[in-house]
Design a protein that fits this description.
Number of domains: 1
Mean pLDDT: 91
Radius of gyration: 14 Å
Helix content: 25-40%
Strand content: 15-25%
Distance between the termini: 23 Å
Oligomer: single chain
Structural class: alpha+beta
Length: 131
């Protein structure tokens, strides 16, 4: 599978809907959309940022917790790499095209908070409860 073949407009739409429902404080709609996201990510491929074959870890807070960046499409990946370069994090970064359960051991790590989708734009954290 090639990076240009990856396209997830439905996931991007779900992420935008989560923000809209949050602004309206509509928890029922948020829960329904999160269930749609849970089902979607089980079946679809994303671009996951790796270094030396291991998922890139972005520190979150100061206590060892981290997120792993994933991208919905090639454009978001390119923008994410530009974001990394601004933060001097772009060296040696590659990608794999997989489902989010590809790195199954991540869920066992108590410091793993989830995947951050499209870090450079309207991003969304798919936390471990959705995996």
């Amino acid at each position: 599978m090639k990076i240009e073949d990856i396209n997830n407009p439905e996931l991007k739409n779900h992420i935008n809907m989560i923000y809209m429902h949050s602004e309206n404080q509509n928890q029922k709609a948020i829960d329904e959309t999160e269930e749609k996201i849970r089902n979607y990510i089980k079946e679809n491929y994303l671009i996951i940022s790796v270094e030396d074959g291991k998922p890139v870890k972005i520190p979150y807070a100061n206590d060892g917790e981290y997120l792993v960046p994933a991208f919905t499409d090639e454009h978001e990946y390119v923008m994410g790499m530009q974001y990394f370069s601004l933060n001097v994090m772009d060296e040696n970064k590659e990608y794999v095209i997989e489902k989010l359960d590809y790195f199954k051991k991540l869920k066992e790590d108590p410091n793993f908070l989830g995947y951050i989708i499209n870090i450079a734009r309207v991003s969304y954290i798919i936390n471990t409860s959705l995996l």
